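Hi Y.,

Following your request, here is the sequence exactly as I used it, all 108 residues.
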Amino acid sequence: MKTMNEYLKEEGSLALNLAFYKKFSNIGDNVYTEICGGFIEGVYQWSMHNIYNVTESNNKKYTGFTLEFSNGYTARCYIENWVMNIKPKNWKHAKNLFNKYLKVCPQK
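Below is the corresponding structure, written out as tokens. Let me know if you'd prefer a different format.
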């Protein structure tokens, strides 16, 4: 069985984009899903238009992500490494765990 980290490496862009969309999109961003013909396509378009760069960093306890948005905004989020080592039932379970445990760092 694969760990959640292995699932995310294989299908990572979709899981990451979905989680980032849920954490950082605005109420008006749902127009992407209407224009693009579906939720997944809309999330990809939202990510391509809004996220300029994603940098991943790790330490013993956390895996962190620094997101640079096209409007100049920078956000940080993290997930604990014990979650990344869970062996989920399937990719959908891994995606749901990632969404559940991904935390946004408070802005200073």
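The two ends are 40 Å apart (CA to CA).

Thanks again,
Q.
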